[in-house]
Design brief:
Order of helices and strands: EEEEEEEEEEEEEEEHEHHEE
Domain Conserved virulence factor B first S1: 5-64
Protein name: GntR family transcriptional regulator
Domain Conserved virulence factor B-like winged helix: 219-276
Number of strands: 18
CATH class of the largest domain: Mainly Beta
Strand order of the largest sheet: 3-2-1-4-5
Radius of gyration: 25 Å
CATH superfamily of the largest domain: Nucleic acid-binding proteins
Structural class: mainly beta
InterPro entries: CvfB_fam, CvfB_S1_st, CvfB_WH, NA-bd_OB-fold, WH-like_DNA-bd_sf
Shape: globular
CATH architecture of the largest domain: Beta Barrel
Largest sheet: 5 strands, antiparallel
CATH topology of the largest domain: OB fold (Dihydrolipoamide Acetyltransferase, E2P)
Oligomer: single chain
Distance between the termini: 66 Å
Family: Belongs to the CvfB family.
Strand content: 35-45%
Amino acid sequence: MQCQIGKINTLEVVREKEFGVYLEAGNLGQILLPKRYIPKGCKIGGQLDVFVYLDSEDQLIATTETPKVQVGQFAGLKAVAVNSVGAFFDWGLPKDLLVPFSKQKNTVSVGETHLLFVYLDVETNRIVATTKVDALLNREEPPYRTGDQVSLIIGDRTDIGFKCIVDQRFWGVLFFADVPDRVFKGQKLEGFIKRVREDGKIDLSLQQTGYQKVTDILDDIVAYLEKNGGSMAITDKSNPEDIKRAFGVSKATFKKALGALYKDKKVTLAPGSVSLAKKS
């Protein structure tokens, strides 16, 4: 079997010691899982999902803790220390993640959040990262269509919006007009493709575009009415913030959805209220 350093692997428990258990890692031999990480019910012959990396003494070790990022992935992480070797980032494990000076796009200071890519140094088997991520993205033609759902990592703020990493593969732009709430660098969000331009650049949105947004909340409105005795005081005249809080969409989208429900005779509209239509 091939066990991969810097990734989560499913390994078999083969030996038990006072200080932990050893896991069979195939090409990497047997790896220690320290006692503090052993889950209840662990037995020899059982299998565990563990993350494999080098500890502070550069020894292979396993943990059942899940890091914020694995080898081959991008993430936004905060710098917690800087020394003569480079900058160290919190990635959710006891040993911080190193970005050597030679792999820093800009000088890193403690407390800053940077987008980085994690990789395995094949000469040392150490897991390290780089903030020079531009050349690692947009290396293929974007396969998206308008309305496709994607995963986003918020990047730097620009004059027009925020750069975002899309599906761990591409750069995209989230314009200020398409950001309903405050976002921050390194934040992970679900978003949607607004359009892919002829030059391959991607425009993003945090809400589905077009009529798809309307159809997606029709059932939500009906369910809200049913839960509240068949009527509600939220109408097309309501405050946009109240509409957003209740249904997660803009006032314009909500008005279109109400119109669709009224046209289908599923609701009745009155000044100050919306009610479920009585079934004939």
